Amino acid sequence: MTSNSTISEIGLGTMPVLIGEGDQILLIDQTKLPESVEYFNATAFDDMLIAIKNLVVRGAPSIGVAAAFSLAWEAVLLASKITDEKTFLAALAVKGWELKATRPTAVNLAWSVDLIIDRATRGFHEKKTTVEVALYLKEEAYKVMEHHIAVNKTLSDLGAELFKNEARVLTHCNAGSLATCGWGTALGVIRSAHIKGLKPEVFVDETRPRHQGAKLTMWELKEDQIPATLVCDNMAGHLMATGKVDLVITGADRIAVNGDTANKIGTYNLAVLAHYHNIPFYIAAPLSTVDGALASGDLIPIEHRNESEVTMINDASITVGGARAYNPAFDVTPAKLITAIITEAGILKPDYTRSITEALKGALK
Ligand code: MRU
């Protein structure tokens, strides 16, 4: 795919999650769904920073791909002013840090930024000018997106093998097309199982405080006509205790080498409940979500977001005036509660330090 073409082939039906067309970067605005489908113009670097911080684009892989595009587009601007390699790389690194600082937990963001900066260095090794490097980075950004979409499809097809016919599956947050630039990871596995004719039925956690389950996952499932039932987050225990859940599957924002996994707040609750009820608990994620530098999950930085996300819903207060709120956006599920981690390199089982280390050997760098 060239930097002039529209990314419309894969994604949610014909709906691209991210469009890098000509001079523009457009993002499907996830804060507007499901009421309306609108695109946010994130061409200007500062607008992309806002888009990532405010969850216009969200979900670990989508954030990473958006950051790769933004950095590549910024490189074009830098190249119009800078001809010297060192100055160019230093300026690009500053922009990379600004992107990385927007959301600390999802490692895909850092992964993508580091990859683009690595490619810039490679470009200079090949004696390219700053203008040539910038154009090369645009092509590389497209490759990052294509890589993710292909990998999502591969891991989803592998994960679908874990589904029996008419499996009742509980998922949390949104790990679908929107979160991953196309197809999905946890939701991708469900999508693949559906396409294989396995007739999965999905329970969707609403996912307080931002309601990614109610707004985004329910929207994607409706689009694909996959049977789905919305539940409040505090209903999972009852669902499991009454025998209504065969398996739980979620995405991930960062996986440590020992398998400990950060994902949307509330994922840990599900893993504990699933363990108690002897129900398999799966994580589905690309290898770009593995942080090869982190030995265990206690080192994963947890993003804390504004209290108003807890005290308000749709701009209306749901509590007493002046109420304080606690709002960690992610939690960490210990590896011992995870039945398997579904990746493009296969379905990884404990001992995760061994299986993850082995899988990383073939990962894109
Ligand atoms: O705060 P968000 O909406 O970006 O959090 C997203 C999640 O926690 C997803 O479950 C995770 O990124 C996996 S998506 C493939």
Walk me through the structure.
The structure is a single chain. With 365 residues, this protein is α/β, with parallel strands linked by helices. The chain folds into two domains: 139 residues, Four Helix Bundle (Hemerythrin (Met), subunit A); 189 residues, Rossmann fold (3-Layer(aba) Sandwich), CATH 3.40.50.10470. Helices cover 41% and strands 15% of the residues. The strands form four sheets. A seven-stranded mixed sheet has the order 6-5-4-7-10-14-15, with helices on both faces. It has a three-stranded antiparallel sheet with strand order 1-2-3, covered by helices on one side. It is globular, with a radius of gyration of 20 Å. 48% of the residues are buried. The structure holds 5-S-methyl-1-O-phosphono-5-thio-D-ribulose. 5-S-methyl-1-O-phosphono-5-thio-D-ribulose binds next to α2, α6 and β9.
